[in-house]
Amino acid sequence: MRPDGRQSDALRPVRFEMGFSPYAEGSCLVKLGDTHVLCTASVDEATPPWLRGQGRGWVTAEYAMLPRATHQRTRREVTSGKPSGRTQEIQRLIGRSLRACIDLKALGERQILIDCDVLQADGGTRTAAITGAWLALKSACLWLKEEGVIKTDPVHAQLAAVSAGIIGGEARLDLEYEEDRVAETDANFVLTAGGGVVEVQATAEDKPISQGEFDALFALARRGVSALCDAQSAALAGRS
C-alpha cells in the first residue's frame, strides 16, 4: 500500500493555476500532490552576448527551494554566494528540456528566462518544475505572438516530466518523498506528448536495475506523461 493509498500506476492529484503571477509574460503554479512549484517565464529582448547577431534566441532556467519548503528550514543559497551542485544540475536539466521543444530561430533574438521556485516539497520537485515550466514557456510564447512580436508560435512540442521508482520490487509512478527516500531505484523521465524522449535520469541504490524493471518504469512514465499533457492542454484551453 502506498502512503496515500494510490495504485502503483497513479499520479498524485495534479492542478495547474495559469497566470498565477500577473506581471510575468507567462506563469503557472503547479500542484502535484503536496509538491507546489511556481513557474514564471520572463521575456528579455537582449540575448546572451555569445548569441548576439546569430538570428536566434535562448531559453534558460533558474531553480530554487524556499527555506521552509521542507520539514526543516534550509539556508537560502544566495547567502552562501552560489547555488549548490543539486540546484545547478536541476536548473540545467530544466533549461535543456525546454530548449528541446522550441525553435530558437523562430523565437528571434531574445531570450526567455524561466524561474522555478519550490514553495512546498514532497518529492518530484524537478519533474513538477519541468511540467509547469513548459506551461509558463508556452504562455509566454503565445503572448509574444498575440502582441505581434513574433509571427508563429516557436514551441513545436509538448513536454512533461514524471518520476518513477521501484520499492519492494514494485514499480511505482510519481513518487512522493516517503517513497523516494526508500526507493531501490529512482528515475526521472522527460518525455514529449508524441512519445519522444528528451532525458532520462535513473539510479539504482543496492543493485543494478534489470532491463525488465527499466521497461516497467518507462511504461509507467509514458502513461504518467500522457496524463500530465492532457492536464496541461486543459489548463491552456482555460488560459485567460
Automatic annotation (TrEMBL):
Chain ranges of the Exoribonuclease phosphorolytic domain: 11-140, 160-223
Keyword Hydrolase: no
Catalysis performed (reactions): tRNA(n+1) + phosphate = tRNA(n) + a ribonucleoside 5'-diphosphate
Gene Ontology MF annotations: 3'-5'-RNA exonuclease activity; tRNA binding; tRNA nucleotidyltransferase activity
Annotated positions binding phosphate: 86, 124-126
CDD domains listed in its UniProt record: RNase_PH_bact
Pfam families, sorted: RNase_PH, RNase_PH_C
GO biological process per UniProt: rRNA 3'-end processing; rRNA catabolic process; tRNA processing
Gene3D superfamilies in the record: GHMP Kinase, N-terminal domain
Domain of life, source organism: Bacteria
Catalytic activity, EC: 2.7.7.56
Complex and partners: Homohexameric ring arranged as a trimer of dimers.
NCBIfam families xrefs: RNasePH (TIGR01966)
Its job: Phosphorolytic 3'-5' exoribonuclease that plays an important role in tRNA 3'-end maturation. Removes nucleotide residues following the 3'-CCA terminus of tRNAs; can also add nucleotides to the ends of RNA molecules by using nucleoside diphosphates as substrates, but this may not be physiologically important. Probably plays a role in initiation of 16S rRNA degradation (leading to ribosome degradation) during starvation.
Protein's recorded name: Ribonuclease PH
Gene giving rise to this polypeptide: rph
